[in-house]
Write a structure and sequence with these properties.
Elements: H1 6-13, H2 18-25, H3 30-42, E1 45-47, H4 53-65, E2 76-80, E3 99-104, H5 109-114, H6 117-120, E4 125-130, H7 137-149, E5 158-162, E6 183-190, H8 191-200, E7 206-213, E8 233-242, H9 244-251, E9 259-266, H10 275-281, E10 291-298, H11 305-309, E11 322-325, E12 329-332, E13 339-342, H12 350-354, E14 364-367, H13 375-384, E15 390-393, E16 417-420, H14 428-435, E17 443-445, H15 448-454, H16 465-470, E18 473-475, H17 486-491, H18 493-501
Parallel strand pairs: 1-2, 2-3, 3-4, 4-5, 5-6, 6-7, 7-8, 8-9, 9-10, 13-14, 14-15, 15-16, 16-17, 17-18
Antiparallel strand pairs: 10-12, 11-12
Helix pairs in contact: 2-3, 2-4, 14-15
């Protein structure tokens, strides 16, 4: 790169992480030191997500201890939760900050996150993602309401909580009159909360919402007096059975919508939901729709030739093709959501398999077959889900054929997390074979007895030794009673073998 002119080098810098540039070139020579100072002085974006600790410490010292970098010019900041221990977020250090993204990966990072909620009102865009459950849901909800919703001092226009369901909020008692939200992403507890947002947040342009409970408060009927006039995009998810009539009455009022995405389970009283009914009851009232994405599940059998024909009308030809899975599951293609419940019946519906890259958005799969898995299905799982990172075995994981050995031909290299349910049914030998097919899995959620039996009680030299060294997080339902007493734990032979087998687990319970 020495022969390249400065203008080209600066263009290359735009494709690299800021901390990588600083760490790699800061002390290379005088020319690059000057270029980095020029680049950093004009940079208004700082992205430290996934930065290794040594690089973060180096960059942080330059940021807060060097006069060469003017942090008061920073407008966009992306951080890991643990970095809040050293980053001082206030208007003195970052007076021009407009956008802040924080990723929480450990429960102890939540307490310091709450301390900054007063500062969050000073910025325009806030994105918080959590990979862990909320340790104090009530305190979190109180902070959200006090600092972000119930105040006329907030400048927030875009708020995103990409979090587990335990971060859910009830907003039925909130007056959003002073809120400026144009974009909102969060989890609420009930349908009444959803309607409250639609009725009172009048500036909304985009709403992404997950509702945990489909029950309706009869003392507070579902009404939307004046839906947002500028609402162009709605993503709505509810995994509990809900009435079709309720959804129809809400959706048909949102006439400005241009993009509608939803994932719903309809109750028995809703009847068969087909293309004719969706069009006449809902979509005919939404004249501006240009994109429809959905996943519909029903508690009654729906699959028939009539159902398929109902989605072959001129109206549906304007939108994405429809896939049919099993007898009660229909969806647009490519499948638009990260999570998918899957069984081997998917192999029987060739129409679902026609479209190229049907499953490119799927990150998380639940397998719930109660019959042994065929080699054909496992091959399908490997080849059709290129971005799968999390897999849950909901029922007994068994194989139709054990020849050839699973590990000799199957590798699910994208999976980072495996969850095993119904552990009392599982075969340790089969689970051992499957773990050997996950070369990059670093998180395991299962029963202690199962993982103990699968590893021959943490035997040295076991075939799963490499898996044990790779594991960073082990979640178990119940530990042996002796491990709960510090004195007994230190003397327990199986605990010592356990720690040698899993040397890199990051959890205080196993120290």
């Amino acid at each position: 790169m020495e022969s390249l002119p400065n203008e080209i080098v600066l263009l290359i810098f735009r494709y690299l992480k800021t901390y990588d540039i600083v760490y790699a070139f800061q002390f290379l020579n005088q020319r690059y030191s000057c270029l980095i100072e020029k680049y950093r002085s004009s940079s208004i974006n700082i992205d430290l997500v996934n930065a290794p600790t040594r690089i973060y410490n180096f960059y942080c010292s330059l940021l807060f201890e060097s006069e060469q970098f003017d942090r008061t010019q920073v407008e966009h900041l992306k951080l890991e939760g643990y970095m809040l221990h050293r980053f001082v977020l206030d208007e003195t250090n970052f007076p021009r900050l407009q956008s802040l993204s924080i990723i929480v990966r450990r429960t102890d990072e939540l307490s310091i996150l709450l301390k900054y909620f007063a500062f969050f009102t000073k910025i325009k865009q806030l994105y918080i993602r959590s990979d862990v459950c909320c340790c104090d849901r009530i305190l979190f909800e109180e902070h959200v309401k006090q600092y972000l919703f119930q105040t006329d001092k907030t400048r927030l226009q875009s708020l995103t909580f990409a979090t587990p369901p335990c971060y859910s909020i009830s907003v039925q008692d909130i007056n959003f009159e002073h809120c400026l939200f144009a974009n909102l992403t969060l989890t609420v507890r009930a349908m009444n909360d959803f309607c409250t947002i639609l009725s009172s947040v009048q500036q909304l342009e985009s709403l992404r919402i997950r509702v945990l409970d489909s029950n309706i408060n009869e003392q507070n009927p579902l009404t939307i007096a004046a839906p947002p006039l500028n609402l162009k995009h709605l993503l709505f998810i509810c995994s509990h059975p809900i009435s079709y009539e309720v959804i129809r009455n809400i959706f048909k009022t949102l006439t400005p919508l241009k993009r509608l995405s939803f994932s719903l389970v309809f109750d028995l009283q809703s009847g068969v939901i087909d293309g004719y009914r969706l069009h006449s009851d809902i979509f005919s009232y939404l004249p501006n729709l240009s994109k429809i994405q959905f996943e519909i599940k029903s508690l009654i059998a729906m699959m028939s030739n009539d159902l398929i024909r109902s989605f072959e009308t001129p109206f549906w030809s304007r939108f994405a093709p429809i896939g049919f899975h099993s007898y009660n599951h229909i969806y647009t293609l490519p499948f638009p959501f990260h999570h998918l419940n899957l069984d081997q019946s998917i192999l029987k519906h060739q129409r679902t398999r026609k479209c190229h890259q049907n499953w490119r958005f799927v990150r998380d799969i639940d397998l719930y077959d109660r019959i042994p898995y065929t080699n054909e299905f496992l091959t399908y799982l490997r080849d059709e889900f290129p971005r799968l990172t999390s897999l849950t075995l909901k029922w007994k994981f068994d194989l139709m054929s054990s020849s050839p050995s699973l590990m000799t031909w199957l590798s699910l290299s994208t999976i980072r997390r495996l969850t095993i349910k119904s552990t009392y049914l599982q075969s340790p030998e089969v689970i051992k074979q499957f773990l050997l097919c996950l070369p990059n899995c670093d998180t395991l959620d299962c029963d202690y007895v199962l993982i103990a039996r699968t590893t021959s009680y943490f035997q040295a030299g076991h075939v799963l030794n490499d898996f044990g060294k790779r594991l960073r997080l082990l979640l178990v339902d119940e530990l042996p009673s002796d491990w709960k007493d510090p004195k007994k734990k230190r003397k327990n032979a199986y605990f010592r073998r356990f720690r040698l087998f899993f040397p890199n687990i990051e959890c205080s319970l196993y120290d």
